[in-house]
Amino acid sequence: MTIDEPSLAAYLEAHWPGFKGPVTAEKFAGGQSNPTFLLTHAGGKAVLRKKPPGQLLKSAHAIDREYRVMKALGPTDVPVPDMYVLCEDDQVIGTSFFVMQYVEGRVIWDPAMPDATPADRAGVYDAMNAALAALHLVDVAKVGLSDFGKPGNYFARQLARWTENYRASETEAIPDMNRLIAWLEQALPADDGRVSLVHGDYRIDNMLFAHDAPRLLAIVDWELSTVGHPFADLAYQCMQWRLPNVGSFRGLDGVDRMTSGIPTEADYVALYGRRTGIGEIPDWSFHLAFAFFRLGAILQGVLKRALSGNASNPERAMKARKNVPVLARMALDVIERQA
Questions:
Q1: Which of 101, 245, 280, 326 is the most exposed place for a label (fewest CB within 10 A)?
Q2: CATH number, span 118-337
Q3: Which of 25, 28, 16, 6 is nearest to 316 (CA)?
Q4: Each residue of 301-324: b (16+ CB within 10 Å) or e?
Q5: Domain at 5-101, CATH from 1.10.3210.10, 3.40.50.2000, 3.40.710.10, 3.30.200.20
Q6: Where is the Aminoglycoside phosphotransferase domain (predicted)?
Q7: pTM for this structure?
Q8: pLDDT tens for residues 300-331?
Q9: What is the DSSP letter of 42?
Q10: Per residue in 126-167, pLDDT tens?
């Protein structure tokens, strides 16, 4: 996947004060959903994220929303890159895109952090927990995002949306996914009135940390962010504790909590509860099961794009074929064991 660099440079010179071309664009290996590129130009480095080409699912790949939420969070305690320019004109490089600050930091691809010290692991997990609490304590109205999502009945709306997306991208019948959807519809908890900004894909490899300390520099990949329910982010991240660390999964199942420095799921959730003032998290089995379902629906969409020839990383995308049933089975295990 390449970018028309002369066209991009001409647009940036007209819309980004201080930018001076030429520019080169090199695609990052990540960015499975929205292709992401390192830009090198006369003034230094920046990062470009764009929509993928082809027919896209409704509400997916929301580049404009990603730009807007990071721009709004800039003055808050939530670490995000600086935003430079948003382009919604598909004629420039083929799809809409935005350009943001290049943050020099380390990406931690494996949540078990096998090469780190216990102190570094403990610090990284504490920093993630603190940032999540800070995000959920942001005053949505104060940062100008009151219209960023519909408050109330978040899980009912999300369940309907992701079920619709899953059905639209279904490539074969997965009985456990059907059973999971049926259970979630029956177990849906009553709306408790909690409203916050949610990231939507809050996991360790969507963050940049300092190279020499467990300091969180920036949270990225806000494509799925919205005004919603804070427990969605918490449960989504806590899937990591239950996923295996084999194959294409990068989880914490089997990691020794006594020596690793990584907190238990229960301790992580309790710390979040203290930081936010929420305390104990109710209906935890539902929230975890929903998180597994949602990830399964996302991966099913990735698989559908791969089969249609529109995936950013086709080889990685095709692995979703075997991972979706695994996630559905893990969700049913959560339900049967009641977390």
A1: 280
A2: 3.90.1200.10
A3: 28
A4: bbbbbbeeebbbbeeebebbbebb
A5: 3.30.200.20
A6: 25-250
A7: 0.89
A8: 988 887 777 766 666 666 666 788 999 999 99
A9: T
A10: 999 999 999 999 999 999 999 998 878 899 999 999 999 999
